[in-house]
Design a protein that fits this description.
Layout: E1 2-4, E2 7-9, E3 12-14, E4 19-21, E5 24-26, E6 29-32, E7 39-41, E8 44-46, E9 49-52, H1 54-68, H2 72-83
Parallel strand pairs: 1-4, 2-5, 3-6, 4-7, 5-8, 6-9
Helix pairs in contact: 1-2
Length: 125
Amino acid sequence: MQDTGKTYRGKQLSLDGKRFENCVFDRCELDYGGGVPPVLSGCSFENCSFSFSGKAAYTLAFLSGMHGGGFGAMVEQTFQGIRDGAYLQLPLQNLDPQAASRPPVDAHPLAFRTPRIVSIPKRKS
């Protein structure tokens, strides 16, 4: 879906896979669920809220658990990469769930293996 120059007022919108150019969002609730990232080009936002659901919410919960479970430096490094724009040009994986040939998960630059640790006990001095 692509919208150009539209005004949205008081709407609840899912952003996944959508493209908005030069649109106005006023008092809208905008949700990203972890699908194809949206394009929001030249848009303005007035009193809007953003939320994360589905796979996006799971990703945030995972990062939060990692941060609190002893992997704070790795999470901070990931966020620094985001601030530096390191992940802006990554190609999207083939989104066809029936696709037979997919690269291994470890081939993706954002992929890393993490032990199943929720918390690490503090050492006694």
